[in-house]
Amino acid sequence: MNKVMLGIIAVAFGLNAGVACAKLAKGEYKSGKDAIDAEYKNARERCRSLAGNAKDICLAEAKGNQKAALADLDARDKNTNKAWQEAREARAEANYQVAKEKCDDKGSNEKNVCLKEAKAARTAAMADAKVARKASDARADTNESVSKARGKEADRVAEARKDASADKRDADYAVARERCGKFAGDAKERCLNDAKAQYGKR
Prior knowledge:
single chain; mainly alpha; about 80% helix; about 0% strand; rod-shaped; disordered N terminus
């Protein structure tokens, strides 16, 4: 099994859920989807030997892993903050569905508590997914602002250096002109012309 398939199956089991990385290369998406579908079929097959609620839990886990893994795959392919939020939400929903099935084994009050706990866990996970996206969006905005600020800073520094260079050139030209004062006639004229040429004056 190649590295791409191993990586996608790792995502299918939630090992890389929500971890941003580079966009998928051409063909990687299809390979990843095929690996996820194959794992789902294998998982469903393993559930066939079970019965009752154990089978229901097994099927819920298989379906949940598939949906979460597909959402992770989409997130890796799109690599946007929104896609990663949706992947986290898909994982939260998958965990919730499995937790609900596990609650069926409990008595009435205990089952109600179990369902409330499962719902609370889903709500918390959904909220965390939103926070993670907001944080990522904020970081992106900050990076953009910093980049713009640095660009403006660089422009201001470049402008200051240009002005400083002009000031130095003018000062040096003034010195050169002053030195020409020791000459007279054509010699002085040549000296002044040389100074103009050297310092870009007309």
